[in-house]
């Protein structure tokens, strides 16, 4: 590490007078002569600022009698700095600088926090520097996780490449002008680390040997699983692997309707027959959790019995269930409660945790993630096997597409490594990008020990600060009386209760420490108006504070609309002109993520942009000033309009079309399933489908999934009947089609829909009516109606 640093925290300044200052100055020079940069601090506040901002520290010398921060009690400053080291770093070598022989007067915990003591005037600066830098080098080597350490050693060997890839460490690129530009842009180190699977000393991604296997086992320890597998094609591939392994052709799978499209792709590959579970929705159009009643055994059994596809299933018992945790909008389950509820219905439970890889590393999320379902939280023979699939790159610090599968097998549905590995190999690559593997290894190391909690806690803290500041700004606007009294809201509880004292606070007046550490502050209390989801029980669902949903005027969580409003699509179009790209936009809400990369400066720019939008709206600014590119692209539609006119026109259209209500109905009243997804795919690739306009689609069977973003959830699955002309699905899609025609530039991103460039009509892929029906497939007599345990797939 070229930026290796040593912290020296002492009361004396290195430019001070006297023997002590001179000795410390020489110590600094000796450490720097060993190739380390020295960061100097003269009090506890300075030292803790270095600890917060410098991740490259490799050692520290801290004076016990360091001046303390004001208001921190009678304890010496060195004590608070030692505690900060313990919260921020794991095994950082710390030497305590002593002024006398008072070691025996130190608290016992100090000896557990330091690796040695230093009396500066009793040893030479060179000797002390040697002790410190030796410890620093040992730490610097140990801090590297297994695969990344091995990759660095291989790179440092500077061996010639006699294997693929053909760029040979970047050498081939230097023979072309375009290649040279690529080489210079990305750098030689990346290209030298792009290696072939033939490099045996780095191990095998599919055999799980060598440093790669060691890295996966280390990840299993850190993430709390029994088995962990690295995947290089994102959580989408993780979902396909787990689905392909867990359920086979004509077996029943229970599927959260609020699922990612990759879950469906897993069903297509496996040939399973899906039975969908329906999540709640609120007035904003946000998808909520699957309510407890939906997971109950009798409810699941009723859905299976009512589904036409299950008549040809090999067994009436589901072999696999998958649901999203946390949801796109940050709703996470009591994992043990969900597992207990679904256990009577299935032996395998899959938590799709694409956006939730950090949950294990902060007590706020205790018991809210898949790998928390273990022998302690769910003892006994009924515990299902649990899979968690995570996009490590989304909210942890891995490269894009880097992901992991975590497995906690149960005797009820064993997971044999060799057989699971077969599914992994079907979907993986034999040409892995080694920097991606290294990024998974490093992302794991970053979360190991106290630093994992520190990193997540920082993100939670910044999210809490932003949330509270949004409310305070709104209150100040209302109290000022010099401008229209409105501002954007934040979807969160209006009040919270301290469970220790019973004291209730307005959200913006609650102690930040309470919001940062107390899970009950974020629970979706049954019947609470702010979230708008029915059918919940106490503690069942929690809002993740780092996923911040901004609400726009015009509608509330109960679905009541106002006479005026600001559709979120207009807001996010403006934010894009300020180089602020949000994660998701719904009709009147927009989602921003407070990842580990968020800073006060970053969210401060968002606050400023929101205030500027309000000012432009209140002034009724010309649209060509607010969204000039939109007006330039669609001058006939928007020339001469103002921002307020556009917002009101769009709000009136959404309200008269009842788009949010139609969305809710379309997701609540599911289309009738007619054919299994795998059969639809077979016909799709063999010409057994055709594209039809919405007007011509009633009664036809969809051949491909239709997913509308927003909200990003499938409204129509392959094999489902489109329904009647006045049915919920076609009314919803027709309303979207009308919206897109009326407001060019603000159209929905709709996967599975082709837009006719001449008419703007929606076209969807349907099975040709002449295609033959699937022949019924009788199940073996011994299995029909069986309630026996699932076959052992090990």
TrEMBL record:
<dbReference type="InterPro" id="IPR011193">
    <property type="entry name" value="Orn/lys/arg_de-COase"/>
</dbReference>
<dbReference type="InterPro" id="IPR008286">
    <property type="entry name" value="Prn/Lys/Arg_de-COase_C"/>
</dbReference>
<dbReference type="Pfam" id="PF03709">
    <property type="entry name" value="OKR_DC_1_N"/>
</dbReference>
<keyword id="KW-0663">Pyridoxal phosphate</keyword>
<dbReference type="Pfam" id="PF01276">
    <property type="entry name" value="OKR_DC_1"/>
</dbReference>
<dbReference type="InterPro" id="IPR036633">
    <property type="entry name" value="Prn/Lys/Arg_de-COase_C_sf"/>
</dbReference>
<comment type="similarity">
    <text>Belongs to the Orn/Lys/Arg decarboxylase class-I family.</text>
</comment>
<feature type="region of interest" description="Disordered">
    <location>
        <begin position="771"/>
        <end position="794"/>
    </location>
</feature>
<dbReference type="InterPro" id="IPR015424">
    <property type="entry name" value="PyrdxlP-dep_Trfase"/>
</dbReference>
<protein>
    <submittedName>
        <fullName>Orn/Lys/Arg decarboxylase N-terminal domain-containing protein</fullName>
    </submittedName>
</protein>
<dbReference type="Pfam" id="PF03711">
    <property type="entry name" value="OKR_DC_1_C"/>
</dbReference>
<dbReference type="InterPro" id="IPR015422">
    <property type="entry name" value="PyrdxlP-dep_Trfase_small"/>
</dbReference>
<dbReference type="InterPro" id="IPR005308">
    <property type="entry name" value="OKR_de-COase_N"/>
</dbReference>
<keyword id="KW-0456">Lyase</keyword>
<dbReference type="InterPro" id="IPR015421">
    <property type="entry name" value="PyrdxlP-dep_Trfase_major"/>
</dbReference>
<feature type="domain" description="Orn/Lys/Arg decarboxylases family 1 pyridoxal-P attachment site">
    <location>
        <begin position="389"/>
        <end position="403"/>
    </location>
</feature>
<feature type="compositionally biased region" description="Polar residues">
    <location>
        <begin position="784"/>
        <end position="794"/>
    </location>
</feature>
<keyword id="KW-0210">Decarboxylase</keyword>
<dbReference type="InterPro" id="IPR000310">
    <property type="entry name" value="Orn/Lys/Arg_deCO2ase_major_dom"/>
</dbReference>
């Amino acid at each position: 590490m070229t930026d290796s640093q040593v912290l020296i925290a002492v009361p004396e300044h290195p430019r001070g007078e006297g023997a002590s200052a001179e000795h410390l100055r020489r110590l600094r020079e000796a450490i720097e002569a060993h190739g380390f940069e020295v960061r100097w601090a003269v009090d506890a506040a300075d030292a803790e600022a270095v600890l917060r901002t410098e991740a490259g520290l490799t050692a520290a010398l801290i004076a016990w009698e360091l001046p303390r921060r004001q208001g921190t009690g009678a304890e010496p400053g060195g004590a608070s700095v030692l505690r900060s080291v313990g919260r921020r770093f794991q095994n950082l070598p710390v030497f305590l600088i002593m002024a006398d022989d008072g070691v025996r007067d130190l608290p016992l915990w100090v000896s557990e926090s330091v690796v040695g003591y230093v009396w500066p005037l009793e040893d030479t600066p060179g000797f002390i520097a040697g002790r410190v830098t030796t410890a620093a080098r040992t730490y610097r080597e140990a801090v590297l996780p297994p695969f990344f350490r091995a990759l660095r050693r291989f790179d440092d060997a500077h061996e010639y490449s006699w294997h693929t890839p053909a760029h040979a460490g970047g050498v081939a690129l230097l023979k072309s002008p375009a290649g040279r530009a690529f080489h210079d842009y990305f750098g030689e180190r990346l290209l030298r680390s792009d290696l072939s699977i033939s490099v045996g000393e780095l191990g095998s991604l599919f055999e799980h040997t060598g440093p790669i296997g060691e890295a996966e086992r280390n990840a299993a320890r850190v993430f709390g699983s029994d088995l962990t597998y690295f995947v290089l094609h994102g959580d989408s591939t993780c979902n396909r692997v787990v689905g392909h392994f867990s359920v086979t052709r004509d077996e029943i799978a229970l599927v959260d309707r609020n699922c990612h499209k990759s879950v469906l792709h897993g069903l297509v590959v496996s040939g399973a027959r899906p039975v969908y579970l329906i999540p709640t929705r609120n007035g904003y159009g946000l998808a909520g959790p699957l309510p407890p009643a939906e997971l109950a055994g009798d409810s699941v059994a009723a859905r299976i019995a009512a589904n036409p596809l299950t008549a040809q299933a090999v067994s009436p018992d589901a072999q696999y269930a998958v649901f999203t945790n946390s949801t796109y909008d940050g709703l996470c389950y009591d994992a043990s409660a969900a597992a207990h509820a679904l256990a009577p219905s299935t032996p395998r439970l899959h938590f799709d945790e694409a956006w939730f890889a950090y949950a294990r590393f902060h007590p706020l999320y205790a018991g809210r993630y898949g790998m928390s379902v273990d022998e302690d939280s769910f003892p006994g023979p009924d515990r299902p096997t649990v899979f968690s699939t995570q996009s490590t790159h989304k909210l942890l610090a891995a490269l894009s597409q880097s992901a992991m599968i975590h497995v906690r097998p149960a005797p009820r549905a064993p997971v044999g490594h060799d057989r699971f590995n077969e599914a992994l190999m079907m979907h993986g690559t034999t040409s892995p990008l080694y920097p991606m593997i290294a990024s998974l290894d490093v992302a794991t190391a970053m979360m190991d020990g106290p630093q994992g909690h520190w990193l997540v806690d920082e993100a939670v803290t910044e999210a809490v600060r932003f949330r509270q500041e949004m409310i305070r700004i709104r209150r100040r606007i209302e109290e000022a009386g010099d401008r229209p009294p409105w501002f954007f809201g934040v979807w969160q509880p209006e009040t919270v209760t301290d469970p220790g004292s019973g004291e209730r606070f307005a959200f913006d007046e609650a102690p930040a420490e309470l919001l940062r550490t107390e899970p009950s502050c974020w629970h979706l209390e049954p019947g609470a108006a702010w979230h708008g989801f029915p059918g919940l029980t106490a503690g069942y669902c929690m809002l993740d504070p780092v996923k911040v949903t901004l609400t726009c005027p015009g509608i509330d969580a109960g679905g009541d609309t106002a006479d005026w409003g600001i559709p979120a699509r207009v807001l996010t179009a403006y934010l894009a002109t300020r180089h602020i790209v949000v994660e998701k936009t719904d009709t009147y809400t927009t989602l921003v993520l407070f990842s580990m990369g968020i800073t006060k400066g970053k969210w401060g720019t968002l606050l400023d942009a929101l205030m500027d939008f309000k000012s432009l709206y209140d002034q009724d600014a010309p649209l060509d000033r607010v969204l000039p590119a939109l007006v330039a692209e669609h001058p006939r539609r928007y020339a001469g309009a103002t921002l307020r006119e556009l917002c009101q026109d769009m709000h009136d259209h959404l309200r008269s079309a009842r788009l949010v209500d139609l969305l809710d109905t379309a997701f609540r009243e599911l289309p009738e399933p007619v054919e299994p997804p795998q059969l639809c795919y077979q016909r799709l690739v063999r010409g057994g489908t055709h594209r039809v306009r919405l007007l011509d689609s009633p009664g036809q069977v969809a051949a491909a999934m239709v997913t509308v973003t927003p909200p990003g959830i499938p409204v129509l699955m392959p094999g489902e009947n489109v329904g009647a002309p006045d049915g919920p699905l076609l009314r919803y899609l027709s309303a979207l089609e009308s919206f897109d025609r009326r407001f060019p530039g603000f159209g929905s991103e709709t996967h599975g829909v082709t837009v006719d460039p001449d008419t703007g009509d929606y076209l969807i892929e349907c099975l040709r009516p002449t295609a033959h029906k699937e022949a019924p497939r009788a199940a073996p007599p011994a299995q029909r109606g069986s309630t026996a345990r699932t076959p052992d797939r090990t």
